[in-house]
Write a structure and sequence with these properties.
G-protein coupled receptor, globular, two-stranded parallel ribbon, 4 strands, transducer, NPY_rcpt, transmembrane, 381 residues
């Protein structure tokens, strides 16, 4: 019974049965006992290190921390952008979109993945068998598209000196487009899916399985989809983002402006550095998982005895990206840091605040002067 490894978007442990549902034994068979205490190891079975108590405690702790940090951090980011008027900028709207995608991952990926890893059986029924892989792939696509949109918007404004920013209406249309496009790309994982029960007569066991079932009864289409998503979801977006931020950094580094605008340029540099670091963290966290998944699609690692453990560890590393962003915002941007502190201290929360490091292009002093002189409203970077 071959592992089902048809998609790089798949966030759950590899299925132990092939996606054709024919029940034929393959050359790369790797059965895993649901419980080592059964004491039976027929030909084709091997012990599973993820069944050891110490490993299970470690996995539960790791996933629980990621869920807790990711849910609380991203929820706090969204709350701040909604709560404070001066945080409602185009860049921050896209950051909120990214946080929403991470929240989706925390709620519809990690809990199911952890339980599936520990139990080796799909306990959640037919509907969730189709919906969970779709939601997981959807969140990854929205995340990378949001990072790409943020980079291109800043590239448009900074490199080409476009003073006019996107309107709220335009930004929400773009966010709706990212979710629609992501849903289209993730749809095959909901369509080509099968929930069934498998019988294991040798140990009198019947388990529920949620696996991919591609057309023509083979995994070829799944491998094509997996490789396509690797290109569309990782390689091309990161190439576009890298080009945009390199151009932005060169522009800001060589920018010569009057002293009255130096604060604005410095804030743009800080914000650009923060957003670029968010992309770097995303790329680093997901690189091992993508490489390992690609090797799996090419049948290069299926024979590893501890394949399941490696898969789970790389998946945990990838999921660290879901809580890393709020930490970076709090570390590198005073607006977010001050807002986080006010929430944690339960202090009175004004409608807006203007500390140094705001996404606004002017300082408190500039705000006061412009107010006296009837200046124009602040422009978001």
């Amino acid at each position: 019974l071959a592992f089902d490894l048809a998609s790089s978007d798949k966030m759950s442990p590899p299925d132990k049965f092939n996606s054709t549902g024919e029940g034929e034994v393959g050359e790369t068979d790797s059965w895993i006992l649901p419980n080592d205490s059964i004491g039976l190891h027929p030909p084709g079975f091997h012990t599973d290190i993820t069944k050891h108590l110490g490993v299970q405690i470690t996995l539960i702790t790791a996933y629980s921390l990621i869920i807790l940090l990711g849910f609380s951090g991203n929820a706090l980011v969204i709350y701040m952008i909604i709560r404070y008027r001066n945080m409602r900028t185009v860049t921050n709207f896209f950051i909120a979109n990214l946080a929403l995608a991470d929240l989706l991952m925390n709620t519809l990926c990690l809990p199911f993945t952890l339980i599936y890893t520990l139990l080796d059986e799909w306990k959640f029924g037919s509907v969730l068998c189709h919906m969970v892989p779709f939601a997981q792939a959807l969140s990854v696509h929205v995340s990378i598209l949001s990072l790409t949109v943020i980079a291109l918007e800043r590239y448009r404004c900074i490199v080409f000196h476009l003073g006019r920013r996107l309107s709220w209406h335009s930004s929400f249309l773009i966010m709706a487009f990212t979710w629609t496009m992501s849903a289209v790309l993730a749809a095959p994982l909901a369509i080509f899916r099968e929930y069934r029960h498998e019988e294991i007569p040798s140990i009198n066991l019947r388990i529920a399985v949620c696996s991919e079932k591609w057309p023509h009864g083979t995994s070829r289409d799944g491998v094509i989809y997996s490789l396509s998503m690797l290109v569309l979801q990782y390689i091309i977006p990161l190439a576009i983002i890298s080009y945009a931020y390199i151009c932005i950094w060169v522009k800001l580094k060589n920018h010569i402006s009057p002293s009255s605008r130096s604060d604005s340029v410095n804030r743009r540099k800080k914000t650009t550095k923060m957003l670029a670091l968010v992309v770097v963290v995303f790329a680093i966290c997901w690189l091992p998982f993508h490489v390992f998944q690609l090797a799996s699609d090419l049948d290069l690692v299926l024979r590893f005895k501890e394949y399941k453990l490696f898969y789970t560890v790389f998946h945990i590393v990838a999921m660290c990206s879901t809580f890393a962003n709020p930490l970076l915002y709090g570390w590198m941007n005073k607006n977010y840091r001050n807002g986080f502190l006010m929430v944690f201290r339960c202090e009175d929360k004004p409608d807006s605040f203007h500390p140094e490091g705001s996404f606004r292009t002017r300082s408190i002093r500039g705000l006061t002067l412009n107010g006296r002189n009837g200046g124009h409203p602040p422009t978001a970077v």
